[in-house]
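One-letter codes give the sequence; the integers encode the fold. A sample entry reads:
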Amino acid sequence: ECAFWMPSRTGLNLQLSHTLTQVSSGANVSINLPIVTEVFNSARALRIPYTCPLARFRPLVGRYMSPEVVAVRVPLLNLSNFQINDWPELSAKSYAIMVLILPTDSARQWREHELELVEVVADQVAVALSHAAILEESMRARDQLMEQNVALDLARREAEMAIHARNDFLAVMNHEMR
């Protein structure tokens, strides 16, 4: 199982934004929790207890052993490099947290090379999120340009109609004056 915790608009909480198996439930975790601070301050994937609020997005049913859980910070490149009107001004280093839980039906534990792989994946997720933000911004800009082009085309047609009406009026006046 995998979950992704994103900073809230206020920056005071992390909100559960995505999981593999379910729609986000709107769960919140304070950004001031010691475990959150520990994950944010480490560039490495950290083992965290299954009882940690970051890992409570999935109920433990009918199991005698708690599964192994790791958390890793994911830099949010788009928050520091692009202007997003809805977001408050956040620090240059803003992070989300990716939480990974091993299957509950095994006693398997995270191996060191797997933790290194999780760290690499977190970096790739950061790049993907940045690309998604750029794509969203370019799509918004394209939509705005399309709206402006429609308005400009309408204004051009109205101006052409006004010029045509003026020319008709001048032609009639010129004919009447003769």
Observations:
- The chain has one domain: 2-138.
- Residues 112-177 form the longest helix (66 residues).
- Residues 2-138 form a domain with the Beta-Lactamase fold (CATH 3.30.450.40).
- Helices lie at 34-40, 77-81, 112-177.
